[in-house]
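User: Quick sanity check before I run a bigger batch. Here is a single chain. Can you write out its predicted 3D structure?
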Amino acid sequence: MPRSLACLLLGSLALTALAASGPHDSVIGPDYQAAPEMTAKPGAAKGVIHDFTIDSTESKIYPGLNGPYKRKVQVYVPVQYVAGTPVPFIIVTDGPWYTKRVATALDNLIAEKRVPVQVAVFVQSGGGDGKGSQRGLEYDTLSGKYTDFIETEILPRIAKDYKINFSKNPSDRAAMGGSSGAACAFTMAWYHPELYRRVLSYSGTFVDQQSPFDPKTPHGAWEYHENLIMKTERKPLRIWMQVGEKDNGWNKDEASLHNWVMANERMADVLAKKGYAYKYVFCKGAGHVDGKAVGQTLPAALEWLWSNQ
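Assistant: Done. Predicted structure follows.
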């Protein structure tokens, strides 16, 4: 039997077992219902959302891989925040896709004191997708470069314009995203655990999508579960992650290095073996960054992310 077919058959037969094999793994679906915290509640005050646009000519770190571009940034500030005081925050990659959902969830969770009062910063990518794109350069590269961008070009501007005092405590700093944005969130914490220690990942692109090629990490983000996590001393990170049963490349073999289900299963496995604080949710019947799965899980994910249990 060809090895590729054997991999597919093995994956099909063992999927449920693999999806629930770790100490903090769970399986949900295939039916989904939006969590109540995803709808505005009468007693929860709405935070303010500021927005601005950055031209690529303003950036020293990402001046434009394929020419000039504009980047939208939105900032959620809860009404409970006292200007000038140090505040926890979460960076959200591919920002505008998540703004309404995350803001509504935070309004409710903060009002119910289930998460700390926090600011959310929604940062749009520079555009495109995959290898050779500005978004791919930002999100799929394994380095501390994107964190440097956030720290030197995004946060200082927000701090100045909106009187936000971002906490310097790494336990007060989180990053989240979906797809390559999720891989980016993990990369932020992996390369700079002194700055970020909480990660929320939907359908993380822990596959070989890095561009340009880097001989130090030849398989891109696939290297995390293939080599880096197991071969590196455990870092003080807390990771919530999810994947859909029919996620990108779900029926591709291992040799492709492009099967999101396999990659996330293996991420959960190595995180468990290495003793990380993590939670992994396998969503039956769900696709890539599936909106139904996000709607059901986001509030609980945020609550778990900010807890220390």
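The first helix runs from residue 3 to 19.

User: Great, the batch can go ahead then.
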